[in-house]
Structures are given as C-alpha cells and as structure tokens.
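We modelled the chain as a single entity of 204 amino acids. Its sequence is:
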Amino acid sequence: MIVRLAFSLTTVTYLMLAACNADAPRQAAIDSPQQGTDAAHDTAARDTTGHAPTDSAAWIASPQRLGMIRAGMPRAELITVVGRPARAGYDTQESCAYVTGTALPKGVQVMVVNGVVARIDVLEPGVPTLEGVGVGSTEQDVLARYRGDATVTPHKYSGPEWHYVTVTPPSDTLHRIVFETDGAVVKNYRVGRMPEVQWVEGCS
C-alpha cells in the first residue's frame, strides 16, 4: 500500500512538471512579439541620419526664430538645444560657422556669427513657417500667405528664372524670412536677423 501511494505521488509530480515545461515555450512565444514590437518602435523613433523626427508643433519658423532657437541666442545656449554634434562646425571657434545636431529636424542648420545665432536655414520639407509654408510650397502660395509683406527679386546666380521672396514683418525691420524658389516652388528658406539672413553665400 505504501509503495503504491509513493508511486502515485511520483507520477503526479512528474505530470505537473511536464505541464509547466510545456507552458514555457508558449509563454516565450507570447512575449516575443511584444519584444519585437518594442524594438521596432525604438528604431522608428529616429530616422536613418540620426536626427529626431520632425515634430511640426515644436519646429515652427518665424522671422525671429525656429522653435526654441532664436536669433541672438548665445552659442553656448544653442549647443544645449541642438543635441549631439552632426558636423564639424559644432565645435569651431570661427567668426562664422554652421551648427547642426541630432535634436534638430533633418535639413536644418544654424548660422552662428561671433558667438551668437544669426540665422536658421531650412533645406528640406517638413519644417513650416507660422503661415504654413516651407520647402516644397509654391511661390504663389507664399505670396498669398504673406500678401503685402513679401517682395520678389531675381536670384543672384540663377535669375531671372529663380527668385528670392523676402518677407519683412511690418512691426519688425530687424528680421526677415527669405525663400529661394525656382520661379514656381520653394527650394529652401532661411529666417533670422539682418544682414546675415540676406547673405546669399552663407558663411563663405
């Protein structure tokens, strides 16, 4: 009788262990897709260049600023905004240099002159102005949005076909928005203080 009871207890214990082991692969299969989803989400949080994805609510341009970056901002303060350096100009001490960083949207670079922000250049779509135009917008749309505040002049090198569309705020004569177009579509634009915002060759 004692032998038979011991055998029964051993059998029950073995069956319970086998059931637990059978559940382990099933739980791993349940956990695995979630882990894959988390990894994919983390990868999607940055683009292939290392730049943070554009948040249109945070990166809006006006004649004086782009997001948290403003004309007149000291270089030391700018460095806390742009993130990890993405080009040599980040550490240069030259009187004029461009700075970019991984916290900025792709295609945005900041001109620093004598230690302060002079202008911000936008070279790719996805970063609009307060009026909702940017790279890829039509020249006519820019003129319509800014009405009497915009003037059109021939491009220095590609005119008369290409144009500068310069926006001067009625209450601020110290800052501008300058759109460069091929006569039909905005190819790039910049915002910032005078006279740097109108320099046609950047820091060159």
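As a brief sanity check on the tokenised model: Strands lie at 61-62, 65-66, 69-70, 96-99, 108-113, 116-122, 150-154, 163-167, 175-181, 186-193. The CA atoms of residues 119 and 159 lie 23 Å apart.
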